[in-house]
Amino acid sequence: MRVRVTATLWQGSWPRTPADWADAPWHGVLNVCGECVGGYVPPAVVGVHHGIPDGIDPGSAWFDHVVQAFQRLPKPVLVHCGQGISRSSAAVLAVLVAVEQWTPATAWTHLRQVHPQANPAPALWTAWQRWCQERAEASARS
């Protein structure tokens, strides 16, 4: 399953086969799945891999890398993990906060509206919340 989150951002599961790419609107793909390597990617699509194992705390730098990768990729971008539930949700939340400038609460509410199965693993959820807090504190110091 893949869902449109914003005009430039999609989230979902790993598109493994040419059939998964039929009529796909994405020009960039951000793979946050540690075990999702290989597979088919059309020649016209730019892909970046920042994969992590599911259920771990990747640290704040991972969220920064995800946001930077999203910003560099041609739009629209599909952010995917294996099933489109945990890692990609955490990555999409980071993009919504950093790029769209949404509050964490607004980002979470919106994501759950468009993708009710979104459910970052507890360690990812805690890491994302910590990253949001670090961003807020750094902004307050500026």
Describe the structure.
This protein is 39% helix and 18% strand. Strand 1 (2-4) and strand 2 (9-13) form a beta hairpin. It contains four helices and five strands, in the order E-E-E-E-H-E-H-H-H. The mean pLDDT is 94. The chain has 142 residues and is an alpha/beta fold. The termini are far apart. It has a single domain, classed as Protein tyrosine phosphatase superfamily (Protein-Tyrosine Phosphatase, Chain A, Alpha-Beta Complex), CATH 3.90.190.10.
Give the count of structural domains.
Answer: 1
SSE topology string: EEEEHEHHH
How much of the sequence lies in strands comes to 15-25%
Give the rounded overall mean pLDDT: 94
Biggest sheet record:
5 strands, mixed
For the terminal residues, how far apart are their CA atoms?
A: 40 Å
The CATH topology annotation reads as: Protein-Tyrosine Phosphatase, Chain A
**Parts with pLDDT < 50 across at least 5 consecutive residues:** none
Class derived from helix and strand content: alpha/beta
Task: Output the CATH class name.
Answer: Alpha Beta
CATH architecture: Alpha-Beta Complex
- Taking all Cα atoms into account, the compactness measure Rg is 14 Å
Number of helices: 4
Helix content: 25-40%
**CATH homologous superfamily?**
Protein tyrosine phosphatase superfamily
The backbone outline, from C-alpha atoms, is globular
Count of DSSP strands: 5
Strands in their spatial order, largest beta sheet:
1-2-5-3-4
Entry keywords:
single chain, alpha/beta, about 40% helix
Task: Map the helices and strands.
Elements: E1 2-4, E2 9-13, E3 28-33, E4 46-52, H1 60-72, E5 77-81, H2 87-98, H3 104-114, H4 122-141
Parallel strand pairs: 2-5, 3-4, 3-5
Antiparallel strand pairs: 1-2
Helix pairs in contact: 1-2, 2-3, 2-4
